[in-house]
Amino acid sequence: MAELSESRIYETGVAHGRALLPGVPSVWSYSSLKEVEICPRRYALSRADYPDLWDKHGYPRLPNPAAIKGDVVHGSLEIIVKALVKAGCLSTRAADAVAVLRELGGYSAVAQGVLDEQLARLDGNPRISEGRREQINRLLGDWVPEAREQIQTYLNRMELRPRAGVAKTGGSASPSQPDKRYPAREGDHPERELVAEDLRLTGRVDLVSVDSGGASITDFKTGAEDPSHHDQLRLYALLWREDGEVNPDGLAVTALVAAYPSHDVEVDVPSATELAELREEVVASTDHADSALLEELPLAVVGEHCASCNVRGLCDAYWEHGAPKASDVPDGGWYDLHGTVVREHGVKSWVFREAGSGRELLVRTPNSSFTLPTGEDVRILGAKRTIDPDEEETLIASVTSVSEILQVTK
Ligand code: SF4
Questions:
Q1: Distance separating the N- and C-terminal Cα atoms of the chain
Q2: pLDDT in tens, 260-306
Q3: For the domain that residue 263 is a member of, what is the CATH number?
Q4: Residue 54 CA, ligand 1 centroid: distance in Å
Q5: Any atom of ligand 1 within 6 Å of the Cβ of 300
Q6: Which of 145, 189, 260, 339 has a CA positioned 20 to 30 A from the CA of residue 182?
Q7: Are 194 and 240 part of one and the same domain?
């Protein structure tokens, strides 16, 4: 995505953590505006470049199996629905759908293909150990049969509308041209990009179904119900109204549907007045997001959301005000700790002085090849608070295969 302002360097104070912060993007999406609203620093650090760490864009993400599962189901639905629409099928129960699915290799093959693509994205990620990578591959490989069922459940209740100009041979109205920025005529349009240029706003809708009465907009949701899904659909209604290329006739939105694995939820379509209000809100949000990102160092908003923040290891504000003290964490709880490695204590344990409280605790590592840098300041992400029955008074933090240790340089 192009940017409207210059990027600048920010030293996070973590080894290999020199960040090239992003400028203001030329267009915003629902999720990026939401992210800036929650914490501008998180948006900036997540999308910064880290040339001393790796050559890909953004801070490497730790793999989240639940999120990958969602992406696999979502990506598989996209492939299958596109193929069904292209062939003019009305549903997966139609006779001609069988041939389409056979050509794709079946549900499992589609899911496996999307999963392989997702796993390939983890290649070269400096935050994932080999052991963790193997664990994830195994876990998600075993889950493919379940993915197949989920995909089938979505598709079984989906009714499709043949697109105007689609032949049974699989042709389309504009076969030689990418159709995403062309008028959405009568029929189904999977993965449609909508753009409101005046608002600098864009969104990719999972399915737009158009008939003479207007457009029905469906978004596939693989997680639990959440009010933000309704907001997102309302924003899509605004985008549909504002996008003169995809909706040149100014057709109205007739339905907004959040499609969950087991059921659909219809969201009220906003009235003209509500859309006008929403438009004002979007203008205010983008203004706010632009200004937040133009700050030399975008503001850090510390809160409960920090616990799942992918860049918290780099965020000073979190370590000063958000990370819990070891003594406040219940036995068995997972937490992050910051301090100095004082000395080696045993083959797999280290004496550690917690920053802030100055209290000493024992850090246990999973094996003897796991070393901590003596005398250095480190941040440990995802340690487990444990109690040793033989040393009940001793605070112990156990490092596991999912923990991460960052060396502090300032
Ligand atoms: S840890 Fe919290 S304050 Fe820091 S970037 Fe993440 S969300 Fe923002």
A1: 32
A2: 988 999 999 999 999 999 999 999 999 999 999 999 999 999 999 99
A3: 3.90.320.10
A4: 22
A5: yes
A6: 260
A7: yes
**Domain range enclosing 279:** 187-291
Can you tell me the mean pLDDT for 306-314? Answer: 95
pLDDT category, 69, cuts 50, 70, 90?
very high
pTM of the shown model: 0.88
Q: Is the Cβ atom of 127 under 6 angstroms away from ligand 1?
A: no
Inter-residue contact 199 to 176 (CB < 8 Å) = no
Q: Does the residue 283 lie in any domain? A: yes
Query: Residue 340 forms beta bridges with which residues?
Result: 353, 377
Residue 278 maps to a domain = yes
Q: Is position 381 within any domain?
A: yes
At residue 159, does pLDDT exceed 90?
no
Residue to mutate, 41, 299, 316, ligand 1, most ligand atoms under 8 Å from C-beta: 41
Do 254 and 329 lie in one domain? The reply is no
Listed in sequence order, the residues at least 6 apart from 366 whose beta carbon sits closer than 8 Å to its beta carbon are 348, 398, 399, 400, 401
Q: Which residue lies with its CA nearest to atom 2 of ligand 1?
A: 306
Residue 95 included in any domain:
no
Same domain, 262 and 353: no
Q: Could you tell me the pLDDT band of residue 223, with boundaries at 50, 70 and 90?
A: confident
- The atom of ligand 1 lying closest to the CA of 305 is 7
Is 380 or 346 the better-scoring residue by pLDDT? 380
CB atoms within 10 A of CB 407: 16
Residue 40 CA: nearest ligand 1 atom is 8
Cβ of 42 less than 6 Å from ligand 1: yes
Is the beta carbon of 311 within 6 A of some atom in ligand 1? yes
Determine if ligand 1 sits within 6 Å of the CB of residue 312.
yes
Averaged pLDDT of the chain: 90
Q: How far away, in angstroms, is 320 Cα from ligand 1 center?
A: 11
Tell me, yes or no, whether 256 and 203 share the same domain. yes
8 A C-beta contact, residue 68 and residue 140: yes
Give the nearest ligand 1 atom to 312 CA.
1
pLDDT, tens digit, 9 for 90 and up, residues 75-95: 999 999 999 988 888 888 888
Please state the atom number of ligand 1 nearest to the C-alpha of residue 302. Answer: 3
